[in-house]
Design a protein that fits this description.
The complex is a heterodimer of chains A (221) and B (217). Helices cover 21% and strands 29% of the residues of chain A. With 221 residues, chain A is α/β, with parallel strands linked by helices. In chain A, helix 1 crosses helix 2. Classes of the chains: A alpha/beta (221), B alpha/beta (217).
Chain lengths: 221, 217
């Protein structure tokens, strides 16, 4: 049985300067209630590992506008001019990583691998100081693992033990990030009793999940 | 016909039935308008869907069903949604037949630059580097020139997206194939003279004796 906490309780757990993985693709499949709580709590100096930084004041863009970020590791910041401005002004350090490499670096971190070899980015400026490793006459780039203090996820459904199901394109980075955060907090759209999610339909097993964000109260019994 | 439509129609005719195709944001996205459903072409979007369909009716959008540009989409019968690791496994692993991407510059080696203008525009590469490195065929769909300045150049001045040679360049003026020995002019747009194409290209072009007009379907 997992504990269902409020977004505010989640924000209290996360200190200034923490390294966060945040699921989502331009805000689709992002844990918006946790993001709002982090903004309200006035968090500072966070490092965010995510596909992108959303749009201005939407998704991770809310953290950008609140000046909560010191560093961003992402594949794309083009949909948020405020992140680009912060980068140019030197307020936010931005590390741009090809999207597939970003996913694999997170997977390496969460799956106990020492890194991954990819052709993506070979002989480009994105390779920067990455090592090139030759295998059977072919060059590969070594991409290092990524881990986080907290992984903040969105899910479509959770059950009481924290098993997660994602929906459609809101899946994106959420399942892989579930493996790479020291503490994993999931914000599901609904929480259902154990048994309603068939074992075959579980996308992320509850053993990876530490906390669920409690339901948004509409119905009062 | 607008320059965009010429490019989109010509790229559409390049796609083979039953293939998996990723269309980049912007001009390449519009290629889908010219693909008849009976050709059985499946579209991938790298945020996690194989079998992307057209925009849903007004008011019927699903907030959890979007493309890599954030636009609302639908899913065709037989579609599958996947997470980011599998999505890029499809791209890098040789399972994606074609990627169609925009370009800022392409050079005589067939190298593409399309993700950054240092000091001016730093959006990030998103999925572009994986797509160019991993797709079986890479088709560049772009205007031949930008404000009169050639985009097909001897050597890219902007940072490269990949060190791989792209498969085909389709512009509003021409179809150009990068080969081991350089760029070969394959087709010209309707009514466009070879001399006009050569004049709008700063890269060296090999011009065969006969350069047919594009078939725009």
């Amino acid at each position: 049985m997992k504990q269902a906490i409020s977004p505010q309780q989640a924000a209290e757990m996360i200190p200034d300067g923490a390294v966060l993985m945040i699921g989502g693709f331009m805000g689709v499949g992002s844990p918006h209630r946790i993001i709002d709580a982090l903004v309200d709590a006035g968090r500072k100096d966070l490092t965010v590992i995510a596909n992108d930084t959303g749009r201005p004041d939407y998704g991770i863009g809310r953290l950008v506008r609140a000046n909560a970020l010191r560093k961003v590791i992402a594949s794309h910041i083009g949909t948020n001019p405020e992140t680009q401005k912060g980068m140019i002004e030197g307020r936010i350090e931005v590390d741009l990583v090809p999207q597939g490499t970003l996913a694999e670096r997170i997977r390496a971190g969460g799956y106990g691998l020492g890194g991954v070899l990819t052709r993506t980015g070979l002989n480009t400026i994105a390779a920067k100081s990455q090592r090139v490793i030759e295998i059977d006459g072919e060059d590969w780039l070594l991409a290092s693992p990524l881990k986080a203090d907290f992984a903040l996820l969105h899910a479509d459904r959770a059950d009481f033990v924290g098993n997660l199901v994602y929906e459609l394109t809101a899946t994106n980075f959420n399942p892989v990030m579930a493996t790479a955060g020291a503490t994993v907090i999931a914000e599901p759209r609904e929480i259902v009793p154990v048994g309603l999610i068939s074992p075959d339909n579980v996308n992320t097993p509850g053993v990876l999940v530490n906390f669920l964000i409690r339901r948004e109260a509409h119905h009062v019994a | 016909m607008s320059p965009e439509e010429i490019i989109q129609r010509r790229v559409a005719s390049e796609l083979r039935p039953g293939t998996l195709v990723n269309l980049g944001i912007g001009l390449p996205t519009g290629v889908a308008k010219f693909i008849q459903p009976e050709r059985g072409i499946l579209f991938q979007s790298e945020n996690g869907i194989v079998g992307m369909g057209s925009r849903p009716p007004e008011g019927m959008e699903d907030e959890e069903l979007t493309d890599a540009g954030g636009a609302f989409i639908t899913a065709v019968p037989g579609a599958a949604t996947v997470d980011s690791t599998l999505s890029f496994g499809l791209i890098r692993g040789g399972h994606l037949d074609v990627t169609v991407l925009g370009g800022l510059e392409v050079d005589e080696k067939g190298h593409l630059a399309n993700w950054v203008v240092p000091g001016k525009m730093v959006p990030g590469m998103g999925g572009a580097m994986d797509l160019v490195a991993g797709a079986r065929r890479v088709i560049i769909a772009m205007q031949h020139t930008a404000k009169g300045r050639p985009k097909i150049v001897p050597e890219c001045t902007l940072p490269l997206t990949a060190n791989r040679r792209v498969t085909l360049i389709v512009t509003d003026l021409a179809v150009i194939e990068p080969t081991e020995t350089g760029l070969v002019l394959r087709e010209r747009a309707p009514g466009v003279a070879v001399a006009d194409i050569v004049a709008a290209t700063s890269a060296k072009l090999t011009v065969p004796d006969h350069v047919p007009e594009m078939d725009l379907g």
